[in-house]
Design a protein that fits this description.
Elements: H1 2-18, H2 23-49, H3 64-77, H4 80-88, H5 95-119, H6 142-169, H7 176-202, H8 215-241, H9 248-277, H10 285-292, H11 301-319, H12 321-325, H13 327-345, H14 369-397
Transmembrane segments: 27-46, 66-85, 97-118, 147-166, 178-201, 221-242, 254-274, 300-320, 329-355, 375-396
Family: Belongs to the NrfD family.
Main location: membrane
């Protein structure tokens, strides 16, 4: 009964915190709300007319939605790069950033699930994913494994930070015996969510572009580059606009993680390019279409030839210690690396897998305004959720949100 009382007080105080703030805070939240409403309007059109309003066809059946889903799975998995040093290795330098990283993982997973719902056409078909009711097809289908690992990882990333913040809200220290087992489990689970997503593509033998043994490891490398890069950018914003001061050494340690992961990702990219182009076969046509165009079709060329130079530039700059320790250079590199990997793991991975089709036909894909509107709305939803979580967590960690015992 007492815990319910404390929980009710926490909810009340959190609502009070997230509804009050500076003028910049209200402008930011108002902007996100507007984008979400615009996304909902676009989604209502999709619900009414079906997926025909998107650029997807029976030949290219995965597009912008699944591209963002794949990328965001990696962003969610990247929280492990803060969880493991903090909870498992007891590195106090990561302690300030770990709750922010887990909040980012929760927001990313919510966006992942939203993109899956959008790609399915509507929420009315979700009952198929309920075990015992729908056609769940477990354990044969990799999609069912993906549903399980994503929801399991979401549960871990909600419950662990909630327990810690709930204890801090009461002025108590969190018991390591309670949250450490969950933290250790989340380390393995984070790797699993991205590997299972990679296996989804690798298991489709008719799509040779994805049938690559390096796909799983490269998914992890790119995730551990893009995710922590986004965390660094978020921490920089939090340092500038809140009283929650993140130390320089914390950001520098995360920057080292980004650097090593970006270097490994680049090496794997070079290995894939060598495999595709040194001794090309007819299975290399998807890669040719992506990088050079095929039969006069070259819709993806501007995307991939933007991503590759940005990826190389960011990795080279981050490799030099002096440049990496210059925060202006670091933030710039993290931004362009995030954009580069978003393109590479999105359009550069999903769309070419369908081109050319099984009979050699090239049907290009371009997202429509409806798809872009829904996508922006979901990203705004993620930013909205993260802002709420971060504001509440920061208030508790700074001691501004405390449980007031009534005498």
């Amino acid at each position: 009964m007492k815990r319910l009382k404390v929980f009710g007080s926490l909810v009340k105080d959190s609502l009070d915190t997230i509804t009050h703030g500076s003028k910049k805070y209200h402008i930011w939240m108002g902007f996100l709300t507007f984008v979400m409403l615009a996304g909902m309007y676009c989604y209502s059109i999709q619900l009414e007319h079906g997926l025909s309003v998107t650029g997807m066809t029976d030949r290219v059946s995965w597009g912008l939605y699944i591209s963002n889903f794949t990328f965001l799975v990696g962003v969610a998995a990247a929280a492990v790069m803060l969880v493991m040093p903090t909870y498992v290795l007891k590195d106090i330098d990561f302690k300030q950033a770990v709750l922010i990283g887990e909040g980012l993982a929760v927001a990313a997973l919510i966006m992942c699930l939203a993109f899956v719902i959008a790609d399915m056409g509507g929420p009315s078909v979700l009952w198929h994913m309920i075990p015992g009711i729908g056609v769940f097809n477990f354990p044969n289908s990799m999609l069912t494994w993906d549903v399980l690992v994503l929801n399991g990882y979401l549960f871990l990333n909600i419950t662990i930070p909630f327990y810690i913040l709930f204890r801090h809200y009461q002025g108590k220290e969190a018991k390591s015996s309670v949250y450490i087992p969950g933290a250790i489990l989340s380390v393995f689970w984070a790797v699993a969510i991205h590997l299972v997503t990679a296996f989804l593509y690798q298991g489709l033998q008719a799509r040779p572009f994805w049938n690559n043994a390096l796909l799983g490891p490269r998914f992890l490398a790119s995730a551990f580059a893009a995710g922590p890069a986004l965390i660094i950018l978020v921490l920089a914003i939090i340092r500038n606009f809140t009283e929650f001061k993140i130390q320089d050494k914390t950001i520098k340690k995360i920057a080292m993680v980004v650097t090593v992961a970006a270097q490994i990702n680049l090496i794997m990219l070079i290995s894939e390019l060598f495999k595709e182009f040194y001794a090309p076969t007819h299975h290399s046509e998807s890669a040719y279409y992506l990088f050079f165009g095929l039969d006069g079709k070259d819709a993806l060329l501007p995307w991939i030839w933007t991503a590759i130079p940005l990826n190389v530039l960011a990795t080279v700059l981050l490799t030099f210690h002096k440049l990496r320790n210059n925060f202006k250079v670091l933030f710039f590199c993290c931004f362009i690396l995030f954009i580069a990997i978003w393109i590479e793991k999105g359009f550069g991975l999903i769309v070419p897998g369908f081109i050319p089709g099984p009979y050699g036909k090239i049907a290009e894909y371009t997202p429509t305004g409806i798809e872009i509107g829904v996508t922006l709305g979901i990203w705004a939803l993620g930013a909205f959720v993260f802002t709420i979580l971060a504001k509440t967590a920061i208030g508790i960690e700074l001691g501004k949100l405390k449980y007031k015992k009534k005498s």
